[in-house]
Amino acid sequence: MQHRRLGQTGPSVSALGLGCMGMSGMYGPADRAESIATIHAALDAGITLLDTGDFYGMGHNEMLIGEALEGRNRDQAVISVKFGAMREPSGAWLGYDARPQAVQSFLAYTLQRLRVDHIDIYRPARLDPNVPIEDTIGAIADMVKAGYVRQIGLSEVGADTIRRAAAVHPICDLQIEYSLISRGIEDAILPACRELGIGITAYGVLSRGLISGHWRKDQAGAGDFRAHSPRFQDGNVDRNLALVDALKSVAERKGVSVAQIAIAWVAAQGDDIVPLVGARRRDRLQEALGSLDVRLTRDDLAAIEQAVPKGAAAGDRYAAPQMAMLDSEQG
Questions:
Q1: pTM to 2 decimal places
Q2: Residue ranges per domain, the chain?
Q3: Which of 56, 148, 203, 318 is catalytic?
Q4: How far is the C-alpha of 273 from the C-alpha of 308, rounded, in Å?
Q5: Check: CATH 3.20.20.100 for 3-329?
Q6: Origin, by domain of life (predicted)?
Q7: Which end of the chain is more exposed for a tag (fewer CB within 10 A), N or C?
């Protein structure tokens, strides 16, 4: 397994991370046994970075990971946890809470559900508009001093917020969407992170399956939030799938799958970037692992750029209410 360091202050992790959100219902029903088997297969393959959120399945995802790690060496996994998103019993979203008191409370429950004594990377899922980022980071820093957290990360925040957070405590990485069809970070956010020595953990590298080469228009069913995602809507999805077809031609010439070339493209954008793949099954995990063997030449990168030009995607990456909550989209 190849490894990359998360920023100047963060841990060395596998060059590919496993995002576990989809194992807790966000993309429709998931098989518990297959999910645990997939986590085990990832660890056995040398993947060390496991990413979750305390609101994925209202704690289900953390308990699933805790079960999967039972009996294994705790140091085998670098666990990254997002917190702050609040949900109703129905599953509806209630906004964000990143007050210092909330930080400690969220963390206490996370430690119990994961069955661990510390979290490797702890991060607010979004910027709480009612709480200065300095207060939130300061509260997590107190948990670092107490030994409950090893490193502090950020998620979906803009360059100004990144700078303000880094002035309070070293930040190891920013988790943010980055893919061939989501390249907004290249303008200001990525340069700011590189200036400050902050790594990137890139989620959505296959745009929730849209550019995986496996997506079909009839797939989004009950409980799958892609049914409401702008890029999957009529009028947009056909234009986006045409980009996938163009990318498929490049992948076929390279002798790899569409998913593999899309993941490899993200990884090729810098040694400070670690792609997160949301595999829920072992076969999808194996395909993603194959991306580590893909070496993209200058000609390959040019062909990929021609097939999927920057800004070519139709539709925003989230629905309008969610886009409005993203500090990373505020310029």
A1: 0.94
A2: 3-329
A3: 56
A4: 20
A5: yes
A6: Bacteria
A7: C
